[in-house]
Amino acid sequence: MPINSLKLFPVNKVLIAILAIVVIAVLILFITLSLFDYPSADDFCYAAKAKQLGFIEAQVFWYQHWSGRYTLNLVYTAFTLSGDIFKIYRFPPIILLVSTWLGFAFLTAKITQSKLSIPLVFLLGGVCTILFIAGAPDVAQTFYWPGGSFTYQIPNVLFVFLLGLLIWRETTAKNSLL
Asked: What is the model's pTM?
């Protein structure tokens, strides 16, 4: 019997509503915090070098003189060249928080194979996101500092989507080799 066809008692509906309110409030809190995100330290180094050298020459510079995090250097340079760093700095955390939530909702939908309603899938995705945030070693570096978020959180989000896609493929594939 699908879970959606179960009759929920009024108490269960109230508890789900309270959980939804808490999840939304916590996610809004973290998104609101990103409005106060401000560049510091090496953010200015990346921005100044990117503006001074341009995209390609900055990549050459980072390759020859900086660190071995080539993907970070590429994304960071593109980010700092996309506009005024003081105005655009707050957008990556918002995008990453929403992407994390959507990734966990997608994974939940694929695990449950459409046996849950869409609002419940998004609610469980939000719960997973909050648990992920709670388990992050340093929330500021995970979401609010581009050096950390570009290096670690983007791959985390892509991995969650990949898990959902792999589950979807394995649960919908006919018995074929591909």
From this structure: 0.85
